[in-house]
């Protein structure tokens, strides 16, 4: 009887497979803690669509064993995965039973949390769980994509007010009496093409600013969201993505004003968008340019530049959602690249032929139809960045000359014309994406060229390619050997071969001309490459 009992118990439990973090650094960088009193701060983050129990139906998941769909088995398995991952931040989507299960259980494991539930009859929502001994919540805001409906209504009212003002008084009065001024607004009322219906999808997100409990207490903004699912409604998802980035930009500015400091930004979630589609291209605005003019225009106007942490390091996962009918990547971790933050490790994901995913999810190894993704980041203060430069015995002129030139040339100002084209709900209409400039001023003709990606408009320290391990040379334990002598090299002349790993110059006339040098492997003179 005991053996039968054990067998029955085993059939009704889930033993989840918990992934591990792996380093993405090609070689370990020199640690500033060896000489500097302030350590670089690190934190880990996981994003996971845990599959709301409200959506667990046998006809949705006929491939899954019945015991893998029960709330009792799934809830304990999800809790086990979250505890064993042990990330500082857990960004979860499709969270139902928040008050009755997850909040209390996670509190007993050292996590505080914030949560927003979807509107309408939906029972699930998004939550951010954070270790209260590692981070302090200092500010939060909810994101309700139904607010897009109000933007549409305000836009229509303003447009009609402007058109009405231009009409003669007698014409205006006649149209008001006949009701014709309302026909344009109510023509699609109630139908799928009515934007007030189309945009009301009850999708939500949440964003919060945290002060890390480290030596220099850096501030990190963490956001998570769940965009609309239907592939046929791609325009709705793109509108949600634009609204999301706009709100993030406003929130980041608010945090900066209140706390008088810069902040790093991480965006996570289930975006219901595959790599390469319009939503993905808009959100990953730091990635390679798209051939689509529409997408390119949107990316030029994005308020915050973002890149996918997986894409810039080892490539997007082959899939994060796995069922027999659909297997692809829908979940992402984006961050705003800067001098002060970089990813150092990623959460591993299985291959498509791995035993634990064959046949589709959920199963006895994974309690959700999605897989968790994650990353670990390092954050440095400006003082630490300056110290790391000084530790290489870099003398004057200042190593910040490229940044100073960038500001003096105003390369971030975009078009200098005074007029603004109309975008997708322009700021004058209370929305989020500015129109493209249409003035006569044009763009500044003087552009810096990045020494990593060869693209104009930014320098290497702001290029997301700096995270690409393929661009990291072999590490030399002696930092002074990693730089060539600080000598002036006029445009068009050949760099001397000093057997150094990289040539570092402070002279501005060589920066715009794309002059750079890497050891005996690749030498470039002006715009003419030479391979040795």
Question: How is the topology of this model organized?
Answer:
Layout: H1 2-11, E1 21-23, E2 41-49, H2 71-85, E3 89-95, H3 98-107, E4 111-117, E5 125-131, E6 135-144, H4 147-166, H5 169-178, H6 183-186, H7 195-198, E7 204-212, E8 219-226, H8 234-259, E9 264-270, H9 278-283, H10 293-300, E10 307-308, E11 321-322, E12 327-328, E13 331-335, E14 341-347, E15 373-379, H11 382-390, H12 401-408, E16 517-518, E17 522-525, E18 528-531
Parallel strand pairs: 2-3, 8-9
Antiparallel strand pairs: 1-14, 2-15, 3-5, 4-5, 6-7, 7-8, 9-13, 10-13, 11-12, 14-15, 16-17, 17-18
What would you note in describing this structure?
- The protein is an alpha+beta fold and 532 residues long.
- It has three domains: 316 residues, Endonuclease/exonuclease/phosphatase (Deoxyribonuclease I, Chain A, 4-Layer Sandwich), CATH 3.60.10; 54 residues, no CATH class; 102 residues, no CATH class.
- The chain is 24% helix and 19% strand.
- It has a seven-stranded mixed β-sheet, covered by helices on one side.
- Strand 4 and strand 5 form a beta hairpin.
- The protein is globular.
- The relative contact order is 0.12.
């Amino acid at each position: 009887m005991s053996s039968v009992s054990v067998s029955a118990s085993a059939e009704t439990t889930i033993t989840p497979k918990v992934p591990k973090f792996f380093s993405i650094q090609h070689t370990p960088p020199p640690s500033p803690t060896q000489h500097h009193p302030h350590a670089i701060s690190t934190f880990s983050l996981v994003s996971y669509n845990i599959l709301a129990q409200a959506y667990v139906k046998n006809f949705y998941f006929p491939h899954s064993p019945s015991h893998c769909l029960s709330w009792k088995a799934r809830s304990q398995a999800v809790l086990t995965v979250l505890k064993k991952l042990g990330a500082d931040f857990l960004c979860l989507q499709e969270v139902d039973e928040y008050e009755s299960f997850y909040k209390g259980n996670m509190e007993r494991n050292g996590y505080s949390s914030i949560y927003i539930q979807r509107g309408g009859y939906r029972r699930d929502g998004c939550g951010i769980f954070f270790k209260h001994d590692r981070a302090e919540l200092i500010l939060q805001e909810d994101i309700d994509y139904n607010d897009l409906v109000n933007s549409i209504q305000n836009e229509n009212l303003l447009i009609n007010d402007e058109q009405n003002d231009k009409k003669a008084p007698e014409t205006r009065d006649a149209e008001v009496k006949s009701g014709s001024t309302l026909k344009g607004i109510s023509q699609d009322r109630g139908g799928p093409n009515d934007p007030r219906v189309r945009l009301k999808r009850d999708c939500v997100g949440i964003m919060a600013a945290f002060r890390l409990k480290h030596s220099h207490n850096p501030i990190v903004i963490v956001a998570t969201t769940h965009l609309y699912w239907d592939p046929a409604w791609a325009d709705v998802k793109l509108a949600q993505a634009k609204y999301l980035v706009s709100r993030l930009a406003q929130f980041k500015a608010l945090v900066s004003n209140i706390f008088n400091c810069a902040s790093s930004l991480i965006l996570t979630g289930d975006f219901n968008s595959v790599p390469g589609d319009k939503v993905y291209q808009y959100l990953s605005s730091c990635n390679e340019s798209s051939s689509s003019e529409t997408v390119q225009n949107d990316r030029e106007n994005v308020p915050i530049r973002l890149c996918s942490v997986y894409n810039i390091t080892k490539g997007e996962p082959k899939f994060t959602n796995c069922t027999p009918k659909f297997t692809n990547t829908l979940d992402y971790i984006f961050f705003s690249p800067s001098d002060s933050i970089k990813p150092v490790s990623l959460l591993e994901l299985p291959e498509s032929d791995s035993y634990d995913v064959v046949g589709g999810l959920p199963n006895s190894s994974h309690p959700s139809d999605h897989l968790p993704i994650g990353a670990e980041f390092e954050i440095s203060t400006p003082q630490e960045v300056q110290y790391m430069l000084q530790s290489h015995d870099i003398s004057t002129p200042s190593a910040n000359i490229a940044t100073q030139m960038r500001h003096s040339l105003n390369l971030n100002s975009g078009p200098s014309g005074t007029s603004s084209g109309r975008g997708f709900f322009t700021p004058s209409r209370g929305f989020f994406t500015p129109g493209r400039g249409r003035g006569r001023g044009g763009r500044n003709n003087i552009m810096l060229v990045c020494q990593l990606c060869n693209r104009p408009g930014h320098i290497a320290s702001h290029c997301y390619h700096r995270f690409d391990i393929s661009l990291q040379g072999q590490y030399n334990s002696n930092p002074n050997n990693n730089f060539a002598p600080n000598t002036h090299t006029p445009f068009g002349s050949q760099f001397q071969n000093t057997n150094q790993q990289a040539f570092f110059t402070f002279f501005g006339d060589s920066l715009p001309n794309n002059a750079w040098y890497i050891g005996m492997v690749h030498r470039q003179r002006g715009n003419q490459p030479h391979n040795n």
